[in-house]
Amino acid sequence: MDLTALHAIVDRLEASKAAGWLSEYLVAWHGRAGKLSPQVTVWRPDGISETVMRRYVARLLADHVGWRNIVITQG
Q1: Terminus-to-terminus CA distance in the chain, angstroms?
Q2: Residue 34 above 90 pLDDT?
Q3: Which of 3, 4, 12, 53 could form a disulfide with 44 if both were Cys (CB 3.0 to 4.6 A apart)?
Q4: Average pLDDT over the chain, rounded to whole?
Q5: pLDDT at 75 (0 to 100)
Q6: CA-to-CA distance for 33 and 56, rounded, in angstroms?
Q7: Do 18 and 46 meet the contact criterion of CB atoms below 8 Å apart?
Q8: Cβ within 8 Å of residue 30, ≥6 positions away
Q9: What distances in angstroms separate CA 34 from CA 12, 46, 58, one per listed residue?
Q10: How far is the C-alpha of 1 from the C-alpha of 58, rounded, in Å?
Q11: Which residues sit opposite 25 in a β-bridge?
């Protein structure tokens, strides 16, 4: 696990949570030792569509998490 990437991901998600863009999130790492990739699950608040949320989070985390590793769920 890349701790620098983890801190960057969490910092961005925490700022988004404080701004009301998401209600909760989970960061998990998957893969083989030495080749772990982050996966992020985001719980979206009522009033924000899944499409809008997916675009927002994909741009927010573009440097660290591929769009295929982002899961959006209703929170």
Answers
A1: 27
A2: no
A3: 53
A4: 93
A5: 67
A6: 30
A7: no
A8: 36, 37, 39
A9: 24, 38, 24
A10: 20
A11: 42
Hey, what are 4's tokens? 């620098």
Contact criterion met (CB below 8 Å) for 9 and 15: no
Let me know how many helices (H) and strands (E) the chain has, helices first: 2, 3
The Cα 21–Cα 47 span in angstroms is 10
Alpha-carbon span 72 to 43, nearest angstrom: 6
* Of 4, 66, 1, 3, nearest in space to 40 by CA: 66
pLDDT digits (tens, 9 = 90+) for 46-69: 899 999 999 999 999 999 999 999
* Residue reference for tokens 């982002």: 70
| Nearest C-alpha neighbor of 44 from the set 33, 34, 55, 36 | 55
CA atoms of 38 and 66, how far apart (whole Å): 8
Residue of 74 and 55 predicted with greater confidence: 55
